[in-house]
Amino acid sequence: MKKTLFDKVWDAHVVDAIENGPQVLYIDKHLIHEVTSPQAFNELERRNIPIFRPNQIVATADHNTPTENQHLPIKDENSRKQLEQLSENCKKNNITLYELGHKYNGIVHVMAPELGITQPGMTIVCGDSHTSTHGAFGTIAFGIGTSQVTQVFASQCLLLTKPKSLRVSVNGKLKQGVLPKDVILYIIAKLGTNAGTGYFCEYAGDVFENMSMEGRMTVCNMSIEMGARGGMIAPDQTTFDYVKGKTFAPKDEAFDKKVAYWETLPTDDGAVFDKEYTFDAENIEPMVTYGTNPGMGIKVTDTIPTVNDDSFEKSLQYMNFKKGESLINKPINYVFIGSCTNSRIEDFRVAANYIKGKQKANNVTAWLVPGSKQVEAQIIDEGLKTIFDEAGFKLRQPGCSACLAMNDDKIPQGEYCVSTSNRNFEGRQGQGARTILASPLVAAATAIEGKIIDVTKQLN
User: Fold this and answer.
1) Which of 56, 231, 235, 347 has the fewest CB atoms within 10 Å, i.e. the most exposed one?
2) DSSP secondary-structure letter at 326?
3) Is the dihedral of CA 149, 150, 153, 154 positive or negative?
4) 10-residue stretch averages of pLDDT, the chain, 460 residues long
């Protein structure tokens, strides 16, 4: 029987199954952070149940950590308590933790791949919806709730109903200035935020084959925004080259053995998906969102569509936009380049390349927040920090930051922020803040101009 990538990885992890019912799936890696783990630890302690496999768990502090003065005690009492609780729980249960300031600390979905913790063919979970990021390696990776975090702690397994399979193919050559973020925003704008509900999505076609691992992670990260349980891209030479030599990757002969297995994972020719969509790369242009969900996106050169629907009207009202309006030349006072979607070294290289020799607009507050300590070090080592400093940008310390505003990095009420994050929900970046999702290139150009522009006109 011909199998999809998803089938192969799923079937290899089934421990037990009820006929035509849920299945018990073994979990290879469990990633945790300070926000969704305390309740699960408390529940196990209350029931006197030990952590089954602490070696399969990796913890980091990221969600509500400050992005300035990380060497000083945390001012916010709740944040401080959460981080202390995480340290205490990890110490008590022999769990590896990369706390604030550690050289491996960072956003959970940035630091795990860059350390080689994420590897093809794995099952990976985390109490965080954007766990789908790791699917870029050909893993089954998805977010779980607190009760499921408890389940994995206790058994290293989950009781699940197998999702259906979906394939999104994009073929052709991307135009200059079109980034992976634009590709996924285009797909979600075309399919809507519910197209993937009940499905695991595989991204196929030469556009994804030609993407870097960073680009693939950006795409898979936002699978959840079209309702999918997760997204996957088949592992190939790009994947193997990325994993090789990473801190926790297999070495020498062990690595070669793994690669031999990883090469068997791509979808078999003739395997059938429950649903398929195909797009042409030529039709994709730099994208921006105009509403309050990631499906409300348009090409930066298009105008806001006319839709007669109450929730659509409510969304435009919140954003203070009108049907038929163009976002070109819209003044913007805040720009955020960061989050688990776009805070890898490639994203900052793209931004620095555009910013070099230019000056940030006076009206713009621009936050550049690396996804990890390692990315921060790369930014400095490669001379990108100098470019940012000279252009008037502010490089902060790693963390989730203004993606979800759980720390002090909040966008003021009524202000627009062009953001490289993944969600533009009402109040996501601060109460009353208005988020416009875009690529690092569009964000960088906005910071320079102080308004949204068609960045393709600026490219040589």
Assistant:
1) 56
2) B
3) negative
4) 97 92 96 92 96 97 88 88 94 96 96 98 96 98 96 97 97 98 98 96 98 98 96 98 97 97 98 98 98 97 94 96 97 95 97 97 96 97 97 92 80 95 90 96 98 92
